[in-house]
């Protein structure tokens, strides 16, 4: 699979697959990465009612699928490919095996706090996506990072992102929507292995795991 | 009232969609949430927003909106501009804040009532 090949070429150890409001492509990437040194975390980029992108990363597929089911129940509308493009489901050989009909580009009826709670209820990590981008971010939609929002990390886009809370882990990642964007931004983490559990510890700075630099 | 008349009266700047400015504007709709416009926008609406993301063009195209006006001198992102030009969706910029712009549109006789 091209995604896995590109991630390996770019010397990445761990990637998270987070389609908009969908987890249908996670299995294919995981199968393609099996037997390589690339770790794959399953996740989703959930669009909240406020049109904020919230990443949910999960250690177990059944937790991910249970959140996906909830997200789809709360996601109105059907896609019109003519305007928003096809929403393909692929297999590990880059072949099209299906097509999603829900309007994945739309917003769910989950409020910001609800989305975070629903990710945590299934043991996931809630990471506010690209908070310094001009669209679909905490800053663009509500202007700040709420103190009482129970996030596990913030993701930033620019290397010199300013005014970041000091008591929260900050990741920098590519938000890759295209192959050539994979690995364009990355975070160096100190961990025992490239897994979801280790990432969770690193974000909390536990047991010697940590975010080294972004 | 045509889009061209509105552009002329309110000094809007045209960034894309020059070929579609003769179109009649039926009414106006103001929203900064794209999902809200997907749900409530109507054909012929002029959409007043501060959103500069390229998805605004897809939404305008799908709903058959008359055009998009960015307020407060906000400029479209490069991929938004490219998409609007490709799909011939009028993309306009006003230096006015939303409240003032909408007030003036109303003064020109444009309504926001849905039916």
Describe this structure in words.
- The complex is a heterodimer of chains A (214) and B (115).
- With 214 residues, chain A is an alpha/beta fold.
- Chain A has seven helices and ten strands.
- In chain A, the strands form three sheets. In chain A, strands 1-2-3-6-7-8 form a six-stranded mixed sheet.
- Chain A starts with a helix and ends with a strand.
- The mean pLDDT of chain A is 96.
- By secondary structure, chain B is an alpha/beta fold.
- Chain B has a single domain (3-107), classed as Udp-n-acetylmuramoylalanyl-d-glutamate--2,6- Diaminopimelate Ligase, Chain: A, domain 1 (3-Layer(aba) Sandwich), CATH 3.40.1390.
- Chain B is 38% helix and 17% strand.
- The mean pLDDT of chain B is 96.
- Chains A and B meet through α4 of A and α2 and α3 of B.
Descriptive tags:
heterodimer; A: 214 residues; TIM Barrel; 6-stranded mixed sheet; two-stranded antiparallel ribbon; 10 strands; B: 115 residues; alpha/beta; Udp-n-acetylmuramoylalanyl-d-glutamate--2,6- Diaminopimelate Ligase, Chain: A, domain 1; 38% helix
List the helices and strands and how they pair.
The complex is a heterodimer of chains A (214) and B (115).
Chain A: H1 2-9, E1 14-20, H2 26-33, E2 39-47, E3 53-58, H3 61-73, H4 81-84, E4 88-90, E5 96-99, H5 112-121, E6 125-128, H6 138-141, E7 153-156, E8 170-172, E9 188-190, H7 196-204, E10 210-213
Chain B: H1 3-10, E1 13-16, E2 27-30, H2 34-40, E3 45-49, H3 55-63, E4 67-70, H4 78-87, E5 91-93, H5 98-107
Parallel strand pairs in B: 2-3, 3-4, 4-5
Antiparallel strand pairs in B: 1-5
Helix pairs in contact in B: 3-4
């Amino acid at each position: 699979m091209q995604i896995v090949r590109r991630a390996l070429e770019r010397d990445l150890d761990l990637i998270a697959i987070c389609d908009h409001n969908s987890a249908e492509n996670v299995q294919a990437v995981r199968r393609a990465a099996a037997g390589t040194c690339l770790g794959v975390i399953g996740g989703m980029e959930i669009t909240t009612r406020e049109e904020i992108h919230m990443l949910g990363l999960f250690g177990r597929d059944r937790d991910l699928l249970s959140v996906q089911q909830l997200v789809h129940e709360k996601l109105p509308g059907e896609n019109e490919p003519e305007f928003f493009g096809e929403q393909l489901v692929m297999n590990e050989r880059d072949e099209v095996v299906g097509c999603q009909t829900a309007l994945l580009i739309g917003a769910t009826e989950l409020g910001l706090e609800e989305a975070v709670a629903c990710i945590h209820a299934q043991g996931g990590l809630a990471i506010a996506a690209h908070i310094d981008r001009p669209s679909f971010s905490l800053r663009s939609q509500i202007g700040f990072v709420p103190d009482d929002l129970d996030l596990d990390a913030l993701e930033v886009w620019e290397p010199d992102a300013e005014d970041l809370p000091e008591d929260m882990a900050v990741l920098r990642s590519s938000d890759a929507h295209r192959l050539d964007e994979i690995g364009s931004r990355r975070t160096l983490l100190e961990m025992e292995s490239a897994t979801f559990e280790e990432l969770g510890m690193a974000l909390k700075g536990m047991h010697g795991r940590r975010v080294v630099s972004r | 009232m045509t889009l061209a008349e509105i552009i002329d009266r309110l000094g809007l700047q045209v960034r894309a969609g020059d070929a579609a400015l003769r179109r009649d504007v039926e009414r106006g709709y103001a929203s900064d949430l794209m999902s809200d416009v997907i749900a409530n926008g109507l054909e012929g609406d002029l959409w007043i927003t501060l959103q500069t993301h390229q998805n605004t063009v897809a939404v305008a195209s799908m709903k058959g909106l008359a055009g998009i006006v960015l307020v407060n001198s906000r400029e479209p992102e490069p991929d938004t501009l490219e998409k609007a030009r490709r799909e011939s969706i009028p993309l306009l910029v006003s230096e006015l804040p939303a409240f003032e712009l909408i007030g003036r549109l109303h003064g020109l006789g444009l309504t926001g009532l849905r039916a």
